[in-house]
Amino acid sequence: MAALLHSTGMALHPDRLLPAEPGVRAIARELYGAVRELPVISPHGHVDPRLLLDDQPFGDPATLLVTPDHYVTRLLHASGVGLDSLGVAQGPLPEGESRAVWRRMCAHWDVFRGTPVRYWLEHELVEIFGVTRRPSAASADALYDELTARLAEPAFRPRALYDRFRIAVLATTDDPCDDLAAHAGLAADPSWSGRVIPTFRPDRYLEPAGPDWPDLMARLAQVSGIDTADYSGFVAAIEARRRHFIAHGATSADHSHEDVRTDPLEPAAADRIFRAALAGTATRNEATALRRHMLLEMARMSCEDGLVMTLHPGVRRGHHGPTAARFGPDVGADIPIRIEFTDALRPLLERYGTHPGFHLVLFTLDETVFSRELAPLAGFYPSLYVGAPWWFLDAPEAIRRYRRAITETVGFSRTSGFIDDTRAFCSIPARHDMSRRLDAGWVAELVAQHLLDADEAGEVMADLVSGRPTEVFKL
Amino acid sequence: MAALLHSTGMALHPDRLLPAEPGVRAIARELYGAVRELPVISPHGHVDPRLLLDDQPFGDPATLLVTPDHYVTRLLHASGVGLDSLGVAQGPLPEGESRAVWRRMCAHWDVFRGTPVRYWLEHELVEIFGVTRRPSAASADALYDELTARLAEPAFRPRALYDRFRIAVLATTDDPCDDLAAHAGLAADPSWSGRVIPTFRPDRYLEPAGPDWPDLMARLAQVSGIDTADYSGFVAAIEARRRHFIAHGATSADHSHEDVRTDPLEPAAADRIFRAALAGTATRNEATALRRHMLLEMARMSCEDGLVMTLHPGVRRGHHGPTAARFGPDVGADIPIRIEFTDALRPLLERYGTHPGFHLVLFTLDETVFSRELAPLAGFYPSLYVGAPWWFLDAPEAIRRYRRAITETVGFSRTSGFIDDTRAFCSIPARHDMSRRLDAGWVAELVAQHLLDADEAGEVMADLVSGRPTEVFKL
Amino acid sequence: MAALLHSTGMALHPDRLLPAEPGVRAIARELYGAVRELPVISPHGHVDPRLLLDDQPFGDPATLLVTPDHYVTRLLHASGVGLDSLGVAQGPLPEGESRAVWRRMCAHWDVFRGTPVRYWLEHELVEIFGVTRRPSAASADALYDELTARLAEPAFRPRALYDRFRIAVLATTDDPCDDLAAHAGLAADPSWSGRVIPTFRPDRYLEPAGPDWPDLMARLAQVSGIDTADYSGFVAAIEARRRHFIAHGATSADHSHEDVRTDPLEPAAADRIFRAALAGTATRNEATALRRHMLLEMARMSCEDGLVMTLHPGVRRGHHGPTAARFGPDVGADIPIRIEFTDALRPLLERYGTHPGFHLVLFTLDETVFSRELAPLAGFYPSLYVGAPWWFLDAPEAIRRYRRAITETVGFSRTSGFIDDTRAFCSIPARHDMSRRLDAGWVAELVAQHLLDADEAGEVMADLVSGRPTEVFKL
């Protein structure tokens, strides 16, 4: 280790994140090298498709890298930097304010130490933008200017970066009533050769307890042309929107609720609660019962129309009411809760768990279920895949824990492959590269322990990077 | 690492599973070497005692290594190979079908990568049967023929393998109404010098909600000669059967229920519920209450008759109803659930936790309780031992997590020693060898960190392999 | 590894607890060396302040190192050594009995293998007392004599050890009605230059279900001079006692209850339950409701008077009733239970989570909440810090798991720094040294993976040892 002098430089070590033990590192380096340049498959994320349709230059460094990224804003908020002073929920920022936001992030660069946010930002700054100075209060302005200059260049427009990032498929996340015009526009654009596909995300439409739910039903009726005054119309309208998504290239439907119970209701009971919810007279328990029943229905629809079903449950969204009221959702105040899958999903799995072609991918923020529930479930049901570590768990140690927790019960073939789940477009290569390095490290450990032969290790790596997401998400 | 060429060979590396760091590996190799050849003590498993009594040649490779082993069938099922095409629940297989089952397993050899199933099968094939080719679609038939030839040789009969495996004690798992004739037969056989002991496993008799429970009570009465029309008769009959087991060498009683609550009932309440259950009028809650009370009673009996009490709770058996209905239990569709010990066992431990000679061994599939509950409990109660990782957790990383999670709170002396819990006879040496390698690795890490002296490390290893199971299971 | 000969010596290796891989160990050694001699900051512990006020020689080895330390007595109890034969709850021991207790501990030295108790005791014996022989039945008497001789020397009196241990601040834990005379005495002593501060610990006063609660209320009224016949008087009396503590140097208030729910009561409801509890007519649910409301009130008071609020929940105290009845609390029979923070603390955090200057430190014995709840919470709320691993988790592997579980979500800045939480005065340097070694190992791993630059690693180490506790506990 070099002397502990204060450093101002920033660089990426070629062996970063690989195991420290030299013998294992050598194996990992070889495994990583073989997949390093493979195309990026991103079957679940939150990039706005208009970004690629319009292909306008990114605005400024703060709006690109700080303000909209709740991974970044939450840690700054915890360190005493108010969300208002980070430009959150304030629309486009004037140059002076954008620069101030950027300065605040740079001045707090140390709070990211040890986190993947630091890793991703460093990767983006160095690898994409060629930055060589570490962010700090002292370097903030110069970096701001440097990045601003880069962003004005044609090579840093979204489509150019899409190509440079070697993205093969990019899935967005979309409201069921979205007309998907941006996706249609991209598909119709002869100058565009990428693949951007929508994802059906009906959460709010399945939560009758939500304050705007009757309005959503009205909107759904309008968009689908199907009367949603009763339960059967509601179901038909949802099915119609799924067809609309499939026609625009969607291969999956994503669901995030507090729990994943799937207790069925009789149609008459479902209809009664549906009408009560529309009239604003459903109890909280009734609304929950209808939501759980609808999750079961979504599996039924997936069996019929082929959309892969993905579940991302177990988060208390907007945990701090005053923040949610002032700044809206997705600003860093979402906190995980305990989750249970074994009993909750049993009705769904009894009915559809062995249905040919049905794919169900389970994600969790509660790591306790990896070895206890998800791996045993995916180790039996042919429809079921263990989703990659997500959100707070998309981080080196968490990813290592995930592999250690599940591989012994399900091997590699029943896992989803990596998803980046990001709204930060420029972090996509960093995130996929991190995943490849970590998987290489894990597989190298198996080789070093003589649990896997070298040829098998290479096959596993290629399968994790390309085979799994392509098969699991039906790409 | 060798080039990533496809390999067709298969061999066992002498250092497999030992830590990768060369210094730690050297320590581990020495520690492992000192216990490698020690006899196998297997105080809990599911081998059929008739196997050793009859000493008939094993049938065919599929029936030996695939069909009856739910560790194997569940992963194949998850990969789309139906249980019907694996010969599950179909009785003896004709040669053509057996060969087809074997081919299916070999063709899916890659789905076992990274799992202990792969490790065990590899060990069995290479070490016991001398196989040198990796299973695959291409090698399946030749391997089938090779194994079939081996199985016909006298050296591969059960008793010969029992000796070759260096088994000192083998405990089976038996129904309370079993006459234990196979055990008696072995004991009376002058040509047999091994030790096969029964284990009292009364689960179904303690679950009044089970559909066949009244029939079980009738059977219990018949076998014990004690009228089971009321609660006291039921208890007396159970006690009588325990005495029968003890007379045939049993040293432990095993219990597996959904939870481990031990809330006592007043005798009158227990009798009332017992009669209601016999009449088919007990509610689900009443049946559960009686089961929990009976678990407490089993501890009382263990204090009196000396049988070690082992608990294996927290599994949702037959999670997929259609599979259970068609193929029966133990085919790979059992899924763990969350479990709680601290409060659940309190009534039992308040009464019997400090009873001299009482041994209670707690197993879990919910790893969260290792550091939170099991280690603190076993670090206070002199009756209590933390059971080795079991079932899904009988795997290298899980075993490492177990040692890391509990050793700091209970050391080594309050642990059970390894149990293989297997019905796959030929996997016994592989499983015990795996455990010894992993313990050697863990103890070597303590030595490498200067937390344990070399002489102590050697004592710990011998104690884990021989001392713990012998003392804990009263062998 | 040296040959496995039985050893009788005992020494401390300079690299103990550092990572085994030579490259990482070299980095860790350098990082550890830079903080090794920094003063000890102990913001939470259980040392009796009279120890330092009186500065009397410690009695005998058993009373110093065995009898009062539940970490030691619980493991001996689990190994069949009754608490009575360890002198627990028997007051001062005559010399013969003290020697017998010491002999019992030495004879069971092997049961501590792999535990931090072994590590701490070894450190204390070697580093403080110069012992070179390993405790055993054979060495017990000689060690007893050797230690007794040391303890009679002036250099082994409490104040001399306080200086030798380089303690900068030592917080005690005190009853709200304590007059804090010992603290005042130390502060007024011109020959004393250390810093010993009280901690406000009102648990029993906030549990209206406790059998002695009405007596506590009477005592509170007497000591505070405020009538506690109604709820507002109770609150005012608590506030007055907090002021008394602050006047004597306290910077924090500590709370340990079964859960951390903070559901508010209307003042009228709080008053009604308070009066019912005083009259002995409150139900268990009402008492719990008042306790939960009072925990919210304690946060309100902390916002107003600045005392740091620390929570140590989730333990079933006195799990074994007969032991509790005979030997009292804190003898090793406390067992953790599952805990939940996300929903439980939401009312508190909605009100006070962003209050300027409010510090809330969350400790847990349920490791599952580290990555799922505590890190995400502390990664958003500027008031909140993740407490260091505590009690059963104050151990090498648990500390490593803690850093791995939380760093990726909260970095280093939102953590509490180490607390020793000990009543064993002589274990303080061992515990802090252990923490420094482990943090050095963890930070070295980040450097070895190129996730942190060398200068940053040095800053992190200094911050963890000095910066964090000083800032978080407002020292």
Q: Could you name the key traits of this structure?
A:
475 residues; mainly alpha; 2 domains; globular; homotrimer; 19 helices; TIM Barrel; uronate isomerase, domain 2, chain A
Note the topology.
The structure is a homotrimer of 475-residue chains.
Chain A: H1 22-35, E1 40-42, H2 49-54, H3 61-65, H4 70-78, H5 95-107, H6 116-128, H7 140-151, H8 158-164, E2 167-171, H9 181-188, E3 196-197, H10 213-224, H11 231-247, E4 252-255, H12 267-278, H13 284-305, E5 308-311, E6 315-316, H14 321-327, E7 335-336, H15 346-352, E8 360-362, H16 368-378, E9 384-386, H17 396-410, H18 428-448, H19 454-472
Parallel strand pairs in A: 1-2, 2-3, 4-5, 5-8, 8-9
Antiparallel strand pairs in A: 6-7
Beta-strand portion of chain A reads 5-15%
Q: Largest chain interface and its two residue counts?
A: A-B, 54 and 56 residues
Distance between the termini of chain A: 45 Å
Reported for the largest beta sheet of chain A, the result is: 4 strands, parallel
The share of residues in helices of chain A is 40-55%
Strand order of the largest sheet of chain A: 4-5-8-9
Kindly provide the name of the CATH class of the largest domain in chain A: Alpha Beta
CATH homologous superfamily label of the largest domain in chain A: Metal-dependent hydrolases
Overall average residue pLDDT of chain A? 97
CATH hierarchy: architecture of the largest domain in chain A: Alpha-Beta Barrel
* Number of beta-strand segments of chain A: 9
Class derived from helix and strand content of chain A? mainly alpha
So what's the overall shape of chain A?
globular
Please compute the radius of gyration of chain A using only Cα atoms.
Answer: 23 Å
Query: Helix count of chain A?
Result: 19
Indicate the CATH topology of the largest domain in chain A: TIM Barrel
Number of domain modules of chain A: 2
**How would you spell out the order of helices and strands of chain A?**
HEHHHHHHHEHEHHEHHEEHEHEHEHHH
